[in-house]
Specification:
391 residues, alpha+beta, Alpha-Beta Plaits, Ubiquitin-like (UB roll), 3 domains, five-stranded mixed beta sheet, four-stranded antiparallel beta sheet, 18 strands, elongated
């Protein structure tokens, strides 16, 4: 079993919300404060935490309180990297923190048309962002999180005041980060800044997947409060649990369309070609359509990077005018091919395992067909002999 965390972000994400969720889940605030002392920035800020209400729901609000007597100069990436590398932090915390700031610098550099090293971080390079990002990495290390996943992110809307003047929401750096991380976005109808550059940098760097919650045994939930009161509870929910590593998960696209005006002869060609184009599976089902017309439901399962190719082929070769698309997660057993000897010669078999346990063995169909054709014997007889060899 490995530790996994999932971020549920109905009202977006900011660095301080993530910190609040980690503290709420059980990381002592004193532990966080003590670990952050190694940054040698204690004269610039203090850290506090308290319970707050957001639309009648309790959550933890962690605040980075800047000391007004200290001059908070803007920092560039090399200075931030030096602060992190010179601190006495665990290796994982150091590496993750450096990766997040590098990701953020690349995004800001693209927005302003300069190299990452020359990015003038403004708000993002301020003390509170350093505490938010490094503190989050400390928290993930505290809980021994091996894998982080995240829900789709809401876009927000409206405008905000920033160092460069008034900006549309999402701000340019957040849009660039979401594009870099291929983050699924949607609108929840709230015209506020919901995803900050710091929050976007953290999840696009550390999250392995964006989508529905993973299969996990839930241990605890941490609730991190945002600054604003919104139309819905402004709370980031952090799920922490354990995941069975034996059964792997993968994300696939499921394409569907029903067709009632295409020659049946074409379906065989379409199915064969889709498999050649990289589809994982293709199948059809008879369906009753409007006006009681008989039709065919065509379903294609493919990897995300093959969606465009498969959709283009379906539109070109069939009469459909629309294709439904779903992104799904499926659990898969590990599998490998092994050769067995039979009286008809060597034939491969497919072995599926759940860890060290073999749960299924099947003769490889193409090999059995090849033997049956070569020896002019029934296919069923070949497959029977292969199963005897397996046993």
């Amino acid at each position: 079993m490995s530790k996994i965390a999932y971020l549920q972000c109905p009202t977006g994400i900011a660095g301080d919300m993530f910190l609040g969720a980690l503290v709420d889940a059980g990381m002592p605030l004193k532990y966080l404060i003590d670990r952050l002392k190694s940054l040698n920035l204690s004269d610039e800020y203090s850290l506090t935490g308290r319970d707050v209400q957001r639309q009648g729901q309790r959550a933890t609000k962690v605040e980075v309180n800047l000391k007004h007597h200290h001059h908070h100069h803007h920092r560039h990436l090399p200075e931030i990297e030096q602060i992190i590398t010179q601190a006495n932090l665990p290796e994982t915390v150091t590496n993750n923190s450096l990766a997040i700031f590098r990701q953020l610098a690349i995004a800001e550099g693209k927005v302003h048309g300069i190299s990452p090293e020359k990015v003038h971080f403004h708000e993002v390079g301020a003390t509170d962002a350093l505490v938010d990002i490094i503190g989050t990495c400390i928290g993930l290390d505290y809980f021994n999180i091996n894998s982080l996943e995240c829900s789709p992110l809401p876009t927000g809307g409206g405008t905000i005041k920033a160092a460069h003047g008034k900006l549309s929401v999402p701000v340019p750096a957040v849009l660039e980060l979401c594009q870099m991380g291929k983050v699924p976005l949607y609108s929840n109808g709230i015209d506020k800044e919901l995803v900050t550059p710091t929050g976007a940098a953290i999840v696009t760097t550390l999250a392995k997947k964006f989508g529905q919650p993973p299969t996990m045994n839930l241990d605890k939930v941490g609730l991190g409060a945002g600054n604003q009161d919104l139309a819905m509870p402004n709370i980031l929910r952090l799920w922490i649990g354990e995941k069975d590593e034996v059964i792997d998960e993968e994300t696939v696209a499921v394409l569907e369309t029903q067709i009632d005006d295409l020659s049946p002869q074409i379906f065989g060609y379409v199915m064969d070609e889709l498999l050649q184009l990289g589809a994982r599976d293709v199948f059809t089902q008879p369906v009753a359509m409007k006006k009681n017309r008989p039709g065919v439901l065509l379903t294609v399962i493919c990897d995300l990077d093959r969606v465009g190719v498969c959709e283009g082929f379906i539109f070109r070769e069939t009469s459909t005018l629309g294709i439904r698309k779903q992104i799904q997660t499926r659990s898969i057993l590990s599998r490998h091919l092994q050769t067995v000897s039979t009286k008809y010669g060597d034939v491969r078999v497919k072995i599926a395992q759940n860890g060290s346990e073999v749960v299924n063995i099947q003769p490889e169909y193409d090999d059995c067909v090849s033997v049956a054709k070569r020896l002019q014997i029934p296919l069923g007889e070949v497959m029977l002999e292969v199963r005897k060899a397996i046993n």
